[in-house]
Specification:
By secondary structure, the chain is α+β, with helices and mostly antiparallel strands. The chain has 2 domains: 114 residues, D-amino Acid Aminotransferase, Chain A, domain 1, CATH 3.30.470.10; 155 residues, D-amino Acid Aminotransferase, Chain A, domain 2 (Alpha-Beta Barrel). The chain has 7 helices and 15 strands. Helix 2 packs across helix 3. The relative contact order is 0.13. Its cofactor is pyridoxal 5'-phosphate.
Length: 289
């Protein structure tokens, strides 16, 4: 078993060069550590190919722009760096974490325009995000925290600061023996899990929350397209909490989660049904094609 994420063999790409894993460090006065000025991507490499490689690199740039900074490497630079990092670590099936942040520099207040923007890529082996829930169905708590209004956060960005309430919600869920937590949004509609989008099935049709105040995940968009290609009706809409009782199936989507069935949310139970199993299988085939 490997040690902590700060104590491993291997290489991490930082600011244009590969460095030893244990030496990939930043100063304690790094701006992102104090003010969350950081964006990231979660990606998976299957059989030597990163799924949606370019889309992830483009979104990293988009997220940085949302936080008012520019990544000093182009999309093509990032794609090449990811491939270089995978090769340096001898991995063909791996999780890929690309990220960028405001580093330490002359500014140490809220404003940090003069600080350098740092960029890094790390890769490692990572199995099922939810363990055996991938086949048995995850058990979800219902979080007390809600996704904020888009007037208060750049919700389209995959930004580190937006995950603070997700971390707290997932910790509370795990303390109750759950795999994750489902969150409502600021209006009381069903939103997402702490790091994955959510789908429901009723009478052969699929319902998924409208991503108007949370991240419209790349995996989510992929699965919506797959369902429609199969001729299945997909409703992207606001979902009220009381509707949970009427849904028959449920699953989560995300780069880490892939397609994971859900068996329970709070007091509501769902079957791991055929449509859930089919879309999980189809997604697995797609990413490994």
């Amino acid at each position: 078993m490997e040690g902590g994420y700060d104590d491993r063999d291997g290489k991490i790409w930082m600011d244009g060069e590969l460095v030893d894993w244990r030496g990939a460090n930043v100063h304690v006065l790094t701006h992102a550590l104090h003010y969350a000025s950081s964006v990231f991507e979660g990606e998976r490499c299957y059989n030597g190919r990163i799924f949606k490689d370019r889309e992830h690199a483009e979104r990293l740039h988009f997220s940085a722009n949302c936080l008012d900074f520019e990544i000093p490497y182009s999309v093509d630079d990032l794609i090449a760096a990811k491939a270089q990092t995978l090769e340096a670590n001898g991995l063909t099936d791996a999780y890929v974490r690309a990220f960028a942040w405001r580093g330490a520099g002359p500014d140490m207040g809220v404003a940090s325009a003069r600080n350098p923007v740092r960029t890094a890529i790390a890769v490692w082996k990572w199995g099922n995000y939810y363990g055996d829930a991938k086949t048995k169905g995850a058990k979800l708590d219902i979080a007390k925290w809600k996704r904020p209004s888009p007037e208060t956060i750049p919700h389209q960005a995959k930004a580190a600061g937006l995950y603070m309430i997700c971390t707290m919600s997932k910790h509370a869920a795990e303390a109750k023996g759950c795999s994750d937590a489902m969150m409502f949004d600021y209006r009381g509609y069903v939103a997402e899990a702490t790091g994955a989008n959510i789908f429901f099935v009723k009478d052969g049709e699929v319902h998924t929350p409208k991503p108007d105040c949370f991240l419209n995940g790349i995996t989510r968009q992929t699965v919506v397209g797959m369902l429609r290609d199969k001729g299945i009706t997909v409703h992207e809409r606001h979902i009220m909490p009381e509707e949970l009782e009427g849904f028959q199936q449920c699953w989560l989507t995300g780069t880490a989660a892939e397609v994971t069935p859900v068996g329970q949310i709070g007091d509501y139970n769902f079957e791991v049904g055929q449509l859930t199993l089919d879309i999980a299988s189809d997604y697995e085939k797609l990413v490994r094609a």
